[in-house]
Amino acid sequence: MAIVEGVEARGTHHCETTALGVLLRHEGLDLSEPMLFGLGSGLSFVYWDAKGMPFPFLGGRVRPFELTRNLADRLGLTLTTEETTSPRKAWQNVAAPIDAGRPVGLQLDSYHLDYFRSAVHFGGHVVAMYGYDEHDVHLVDTEQQGGAVRTSRASLARARAERGPMTARNRSFTITVPPRPLAWQDRIVPAVRACADAFLAAPIANLGWRGIEKAGAKAPGWLERAGDPGRDLPQAALLMEKGGTGGALFRALYRDFLGECTELIGHHGLRAGHRMYGEAAVLWTQVSELIAKAGERGDAGCLRQAGAILRDLSRLEKDAMQVLSRL
Q1: Dist. CA 212–CA 43, nearest whole Å
Q2: Could you tell me how far CA 90 lies from the centroid of its own chain?
Q3: Residues in domain Butirosin biosynthesis protein H N-terminal (predicted)?
Q4: How confident is the model at residue 239 (pLDDT cuts 50, 70, 90)?
């Protein structure tokens, strides 16, 4: 058996920030989950609908692992990433750092994990691994999934090797904090501006504020679009609130990030952004409730209401990001 000593196996709301928190605390850098999310410029929006999908996907953050790369670049951290198609090499890439006393991050498909409560394919799931024995591995996942958990080595291998949307080839990574790290407080404004600029200048209409507007236009037809409305709409709503988003499709996390920032930086633009994302978080929760009701009752009126709120959210978030881009 090999176990990394001193790991604080604390699960939080979102998988990637949970894993980052484990790795960085072990390096001596302890930041809140909202601060990790915000410094990684994690907020975004995508409306994704394709043939073969039972229901459109509403995503509220940047692509898997982009948050990690953003955070490492912004704070001057050394991010060491390994990928391989070899099962033997894939295991060596995680066993070696653990044997050396360091936890390691993994990107995988949650469908195969023994402990996972909802068996759906999601290839962008991220966990921290801090130990193993002959049969099992020790992981840290979100609080919702149990925090400190175990899964078999065989299930882990399947999860890491799965191919499909958002997957990576047995990706593993470690993070090293330099002896003289950058002051993370000085990186807040650049992180906020970068997130705002990307949100405002999204290259296609499915992303950013235009993506929210498009979702609002499409929402009234979701009863007809869904393969099984009674299943698909409540599941979509559940993912928005409880699918590792921290609530309100990540808007609650970003609201809390901006709230922490206002305590460190007395800027009127940050205070305005914090207030506006507080409003947005409430509205996103209303949208998810209406989507769930529409599926449960077969009520298209709920989807018309959701569409109207989404159009309001598009304008609200555009205005908020314009304010934040001028910090």
Answers
A1: 13
A2: 24
A3: 14-142
A4: very high
Model confidence over 50-74: pLDDT tens digits?
888 889 999 999 999 999 999 999 9
Q: If one looks up domain 2-30+78-176 in CATH, what number appears? A: 3.90.70
In the numeric block, which tokens belong to residue 301?
Answer: 């009126």
Amino acid at 193: R
pTM flag (> 0.90): yes
Residue with tokens 């018309």: 304
State in Å, rounded, how far the first CA of the chain is from the last one. Answer: 50
At CA 54, angle to CA 247 and CA 237, rounded to 5? Answer: 20
Q: What is the largest CA-CA distance in the chain?
A: 59
Domain ranges, ordered by start, for the chain: 2-30+78-176, 184-325
CA-to-CA distance for 252 and 279, rounded, in angstroms? 10
Helix (H, G, I), strand (E, B) or coil at 325: helix
The Cα–Cα gap between 116 and 129 comes to 15
3-state secondary structure (DSSP) of residue 2: strand
How many DSSP H helices and E strands does the chain contain?
A: 12, 9
Looking at the DSSP bridge assignments, the partners of residue 61 are 43
10 Å CB burial of residue 225 (0-12, 13-18, 19+) is: middle
